[in-house]
Fold this protein.
Amino acid sequence: MRPTLAAPVVGLAGIAGCAGLALIGPDDGASPLCPSRALFGVDCPGCGCLRGLGALMRGRIGDALDHNLLLLAIVPALIVAYAAWAASAFGWTRPAKFPMSPRALLVVATVVVAFTVVRNLPFGGFVEYLGSGLS
């Protein structure tokens, strides 16, 4: 596939996926269980993203963030990354270089690991979240 066709195809697939999540919604418990949750009983950093995106597509921002707080960073980062890629595929701008320093990579990794550990601790508001079995 030519690069100029890949960007719109990926964009349309993303829009179709978001529309599907808005119409069908994975909140009903029919969504597949995360492998880390099924095998080890713990939530991975991405657990809840599918239900969170479904809630986000229905305009329920609070519910989306309740499913996975990392959506606050993941969704805008994906939108910016796609926009930069699509623009460069059409030659509108030069591809922006976003070198990630080792320090920034360490900060991102630390946040993800800390998020994973804290969301699996049985205290406070996390007790209901973990007890629900829907991660």
